[in-house]
Design brief:
heterodimer; A: 77 residues; alpha+beta; Glutaredoxin; 4-stranded mixed β-sheet; 3 helices; globular; B: 141 residues; alpha/beta; Rossmann fold; 4-stranded parallel β-sheet; 5 helices; 4 strands
Chain lengths: 77, 141
């Protein structure tokens, strides 16, 4: 089970990242949970001061951008 | 108060919100105890006030805070503003294998590293000029 977290205050890019991450997880055929983390204190707790950010299994994978579905699939592999 | 991406985040954080609009330039300054560190820090803050980039925490990189390391990796450009030839900031980037940086160094401007001496406005201006030039050159490359 992959734990995917999208860090961001709810901006359009944050929503876009959540969509792409979910699509990538489905395409990769992995079991996953997806959480949108909007609380600024939790976001900074990851050492992230720029959003959106993508976290997979507790590891910050990208910051300040929306990677492609293919890139996220590779991160989920 | 201005909002960031529809949230209640203050305007001062807007350059770091939603990945920003233009090039994502991050600024990392020496944070030592000598005058050259004060010069580097004040120059970086001046550039941030000008909108040339966003200052981030060099100590966080040195402490291997994973989210901060990834932030530097994903930037379009990191400006490393070292104070002296020890190149501590640059070495932190090298240790993490982060290559998307350009360096400027205060002592390269003919400023002597001294403890117990405050930075002058002229020295800060010179360091800011060097930093601006380094950013411009790197972004054009």
């Amino acid at each position: 089970m992959k734990r995917i977290q999208v860090l961001g205050p709810g901006c359009p890019k944050c929503a876009r990242l959540a969509e792409v991450a979910e699509a990538a997880a489905k395409a990769a055929g992995v079991e996953y949970t997806l959480e949108k983390v909007t609380d600024i204190n939790r976001i900074t707790g990851f050492g992230v001061m720029m959003t959106p950010a993508l976290v997979i299994d507790g590891e910050v994978k990208t910051v300040g951008k929306v990677p492609s579905a293919e890139e996220i699939k590779a991160m989920l592999a | 108060m201005a909002e960031c991406c529809g949230s209640s985040r203050p305007k001062q954080a807007a350059s770091s919100c939603c990945g920003g609009g233009g090039k994502n330039v991050l600024l990392y300054a020496c944070s030592g105890g000598a005058n050259v560190a004060e010069i580097a820090d004040r120059a970086a803050r001046r550039l941030m006030a000008e909108g040339k980039g966003t200052m981030f925490c060099l100590a966080g990189l040195g402490a291997d805070i994973q989210g901060m390391v990834q932030t530097a990796r994903d930037a379009d450009l990191n400006l490393v503003l070292d104070g002296c030839p020890m190149d501590c900031a640059k070495k932190i980037f090298q240790r993490h294998g982060i290559t998307n940086y350009t360096q400027a160094k205060v002592t390269d401007l003919g400023i002597e590293k001294v403890k117990g001496v405050r930075a002058t406005d002229e020295q800060v201006a010179a360091a800011a000029d060097a930093a601006r030039a380094a950013i411009a050159k790197a972004l054009m490359a």
